[in-house]
């Protein structure tokens, strides 16, 4: 195995990000450094903890959008360039699963994830030391920090497998990679803390953009599904569905409201709001939309439609067969903007993320106020259907009811049998959750990566081709304590 960068001397320091105190690990994470206030005096009150948690959310918002879109959708070959040989950009070859393509698009660098973890570690260390702390607020802060740390490690272990496990804000040791089983144990423990400490709903205007018990149930359901514990996965999905406060958006003319944010079906999402200075230029937004939404082509995004990432016509027809009614085809995609054919090919844009700041400057690209969905009710309905349909659970009748509940919202025809039910549910997840960073994870979890990705069956699982490589710079800077994933040696 090759190697990654986990420093010999990790120093937690505190940054100021907007109004939030932000701590980080100096060597492994290498953020811009502001030495004052120091980690020792930055968090001494519940108000400081609130700022520290805001910083953790901010760090999560900085790393997740690009990573989950490029490595969760583009790598699954759901999106490709209008032309794979002309007007290409750096992300065009990701689906080929070559080391260069993955490394060049940040697929080898886990540093920003550890920034999030370092912040959570500091907050969790400081909370027990603070006096005059409202007990309900203390529980909420403990639950939120534990949830964010668990979600961050869940991304890490799904991307790279064995990863360094650090629960300290200051660690002077050089850490090797921890076996994934131990990392998953910690993820589950953190989610259990979140479930025990968080409420179902706080009713404070932060719906879905701050962690709740329902969000912790949902992520733990995904964790158990990933670990092939489909019975446990199903039970947690049922808790989200029956005990949560979530319901489907049924107005199909307004499905885009889901991505504006804080809809009644959203369970957890990353907030982007101009008033809170949360706007961001990322490749989820500016690689799925071209003109007239974006006009700046300086970074290869927005101004030239020819390299926009979108499903091919064949992929669209697979998801939405001609003459079969499905409201998602008319709401998820911008049919008014059709790229003229290259040969026989034509493309339509994914339009889920076309919520732009009013009077925004399209040349800057920092104009998109769509929220990035981490999980929402249809995800959990279909995950439960998948778990119920698995032979280890075998309750296919209930699985079909859930599948058809998602279809009915889109006025799509009900499933009445035929084919392999698991494959039908997987395709439904692809249709419903396209562009939300789920599909590559779905293919690995269901052991069906060869169905849609370009990773072959002989390589993808046993040899570890589904894992990302680790950047050689990280390996070298760790003094080779970090080792490379076997497939990428």
TrEMBL record:
Alphabetical list of CDD domains matching this protein: SusD (cd08977)
RagB/SusD domain span: 348-451
Pfam families tied to this protein: SusD-like_3 (PF14322), SusD_RagB (PF07980)
Keyword Membrane: yes
Compartments, record wording: Cell outer membrane
Keywords from the named record: Cell outer membrane, Membrane, Signal
Cellular component, GO, one term: cell outer membrane
Database matches in Gene3D superfamilies: 1.25.40.390
Domain SusD-like N-terminal: 47-222
Family note: Belongs to the SusD family.
Protein name: RagB/SusD family nutrient uptake outer membrane protein
Organism: Chitinophaga fulva
């Amino acid at each position: 195995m090759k190697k990654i960068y986990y420093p010999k001397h990790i120093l937690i320091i505190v940054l100021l990000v907007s109004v939030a105190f932000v701590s980080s690990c100096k060597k492994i994470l290498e953020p811009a450094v502001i030495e004052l206030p120091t980690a020792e005096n930055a968090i001494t009150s519940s108000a400081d903890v609130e700022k520290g948690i805001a910083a953790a959310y901010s760090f999560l918002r900085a790393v997740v959008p690009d990573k989950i879109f490029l490595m969760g959708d583009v790598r699954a070959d759901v999106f490709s360039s209008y032309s794979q040989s002309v007007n290409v950009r750096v992300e065009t070859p990701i689906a080929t699963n070559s080391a260069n393509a993955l490394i060049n698009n940040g697929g080898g660098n886990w540093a920003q994830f550890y920034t999030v973890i370092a912040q959570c570690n500091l907050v969790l260390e400081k909370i027990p030391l603070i006096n005059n702390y409202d007990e309900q607020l203390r529980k909420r802060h403990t639950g939120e920090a534990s949830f964010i740390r668990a979600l961050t490690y869940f991304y890490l272990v799904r991307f790279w497998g064995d990863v360094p496990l650090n629960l300290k804000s200051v660690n002077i040791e050089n850490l090797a990679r921890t076996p994934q089983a131990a990392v998953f144990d910690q993820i589950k423990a953190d989610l259990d803390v979140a479930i025990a400490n968080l409420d179902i709903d706080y009713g404070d205007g932060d719906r879905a953009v701050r962690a709740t018990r329902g969000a912790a149930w949902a992520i733990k359901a995904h964790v158990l599904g990933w670990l092939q514990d489909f019975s446990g996965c199903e039970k947690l999905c049922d808790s989200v569905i029956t005990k949560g406060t979530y319901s489907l958006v049924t107005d199909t003319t307004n499905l885009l409201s889901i991505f504006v944010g804080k809809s009644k079906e959203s369970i957890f999402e990353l907030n982007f709001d101009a008033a809170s200075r949360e706007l961001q230029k990322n490749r989820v937004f500016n690689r799925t939309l071209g003109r007239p939404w974006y006009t700046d082509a300086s970074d290869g995004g927005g101004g030239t439609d020819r390299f926009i990432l979108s499903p091919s016509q064949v992929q669209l027809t697979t998801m939405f067969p001609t003459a079969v009614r499905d409201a998602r085809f008319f709401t998820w995609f911008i049919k008014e903007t059709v790229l003229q054919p290259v040969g026989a090919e034509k493309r339509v844009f994914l339009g889920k993320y076309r919520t732009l700041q009013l009077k925004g400057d399209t040349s800057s690209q920092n104009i998109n106020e769509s929220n990035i969905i981490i999980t929402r009710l249809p995800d959990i309905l279909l995950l439960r259907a998948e778990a119920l349909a698995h032979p280890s659970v075998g309750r296919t009748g209930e699985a079909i009811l859930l599948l058809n509940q998602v279809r009915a919202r889109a006025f799509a025809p009900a499933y009445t049998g035929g084919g392999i039910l698991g494959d039908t549910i997987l395709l439904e997840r692809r249709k419903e959750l396209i562009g939300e960073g789920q599909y590559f994870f779905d293919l690995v979890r269901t052991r069906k990566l060869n169905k849609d990705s370009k990773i072959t069956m002989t390589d993808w699982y046993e040899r570890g081709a589904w894992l990302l490589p680790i950047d050689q710079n990280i390996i070298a800077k760790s003094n080779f304590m970090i080792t490379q994933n076997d497939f990428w040696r």
